[in-house]
Amino acid sequence: MRIVMIGAGYVGLVSAACFADFGHDVTCVDKDCEKIAALNQYRIPIFEPDLDKLVESGVNSGRLRFGVDLSDIGEADAVFIAVGTPSRRGDGHADLSYVHAAAREIAGLLEGFTLIVTKSTVPVGTGDEVERIIKETNPEADFAVVANPEFLREGAAIRDFQHPDRIVVGTDDERAKKVMGQIYRPLYLNQAPILYTSRRTAELIKYAANAFLATKITFINEIADLAERVGANVQDVARGIGLDNRIGAKFLHAGPGYGGSCFPKDTRALSKTALDYGVQLRVVEATLTVNEIRKRTMSRKVSGALDNDIRGKTIAVLGLTFKPDTDDMREAPSIALIAGLLDFGAKVRAHDPVGMEQAKKELSDIEFCDDPYACARGADALVIVTEWRQFRALDLERIRTDMATPVIVDLRNIYRPEDVRSAGFRYESIGRA
Ligand code: UDX
């Protein structure tokens, strides 16, 4: 199949590289000339494990190329739209201007039957609008618009693409179903089910999935707060409920609140779309509010571990990105935490294994350290915010000797309380009394 991928951002780049790896012929197009020049020299603008190798082998095989113009669209069987849909300033709706602009540009270049596939996360009804724009711009065009949302997790995106739980294809067009079946044929080997639905249903599946996962995390976070008060252990509660197949064990890790490029943005957009249709999604709205409050209150937890005497104290923060194996700082819990600590008059130092460059753009008035031990030296409390593997087996003896006061606040529960306490620390974690 010949594929044009519009957008060399997170989703576009991973999808383009994986489709080329499946054996398809892929042109990945982006307006950002510098990004395209870098990609042509195998320099990847994001941190994603193994993406560099996949891009390099795709380019070397001749099946993957990067460019700034859309001239390959005439030959394409499918044009994927994977441009950004950020939260619109002010109202929380998804900003669809890049999607609409792409539709307009594609329209005049279509030759023969072509699929236009939305891969970006787009509100229900966007496929209809893309179809309208293309028809209006080029009434002669022979095309079908398909919704094909992605469910990739940052840090595990390639594995998720190659071994998806399911592929969702939203279209009623039989020709389109056939082409999509051929595009995803390599995944039959991995027995990934393809779920064919209407276009609007596919668009809603994506938002419902993200809102459900965000709600699941938020639920266990609230149970963690209660566990702390009543003297229970939230990890055992999660295990105890997760073994019920109806609930499932995943996404029940209590922590400092969810962040990232998807959950916050998509839950906001879903509740806004719902209101446009006269439906109030109270559960989703509660998830949004509870999570925002949670991220802000984490600084109080740290302050509590220092008996609320935090002014002028030095706090060492380990992990800044919203989760491990990414350099992404979008809506990371570390941002609200550090803002709160600075408001309390604390001095903040931080270290992240991969995200320091991105973090420097987001965070000011803090000191950045090259490794966890330099960060801990002389500090009054050490706060683990992102569960990078590098932090799971720290030399506690060395840290205790180097710190001004031996206090660890573990917002990801990566240590066993008895181990840290017996190493001589005051230790606070999440939902474990
Ligand atoms: C998410 C969805 O998982 C993915 O399907 C969708 O396509 C994009 O959004 P991503 O944002 O990359 O992926 O990360 P994910 O691993 O889902 O984590 C999101 C946030 O939830 C992180 O801040 C993470 O720390 C937090 N989280 C996740 C928890 O606090 N507890 C959990 O149990 C799981």
Automatic annotation (TrEMBL):
By what name is this protein known? UDP-glucose 6-dehydrogenase
**Record Pfam families:** UDPG_MGDP_dh, UDPG_MGDP_dh_C, UDPG_MGDP_dh_N
> What is the top EC class of this enzyme, as a single word?
oxidoreductase
Give the originating organism.
Nitrobacter winogradskyi (strain ATCC 25391 / DSM 10237 / CIP 104748 / NCIMB 11846 / Nb-255)
Q: Does the keyword Oxidoreductase apply?
A: yes
Detail which positions bind NAD(+).
Answer: D30, K35, T85, T121, E154, K265, R330
**Catalyzed reactions:** UDP-alpha-D-glucose + 2 NAD(+) + H2O = UDP-alpha-D-glucuronate + 2 NADH + 3 H(+)
TM ranges = none
User: What EC number(s) has UniProt assigned to this enzyme?
Assistant: 1.1.1.22
InterPro entries under this entry?
6-PGluconate_DH-like_C_sf, NAD(P)-bd_dom_sf, UDP-Glc/GDP-Man, UDP-Glc/GDP-Man_DH_C, UDP-Glc/GDP-Man_DH_C_sf, UDP-Glc/GDP-Man_DH_dimer, UDP-Glc/GDP-Man_DH_N, UDPglc_DH_bac
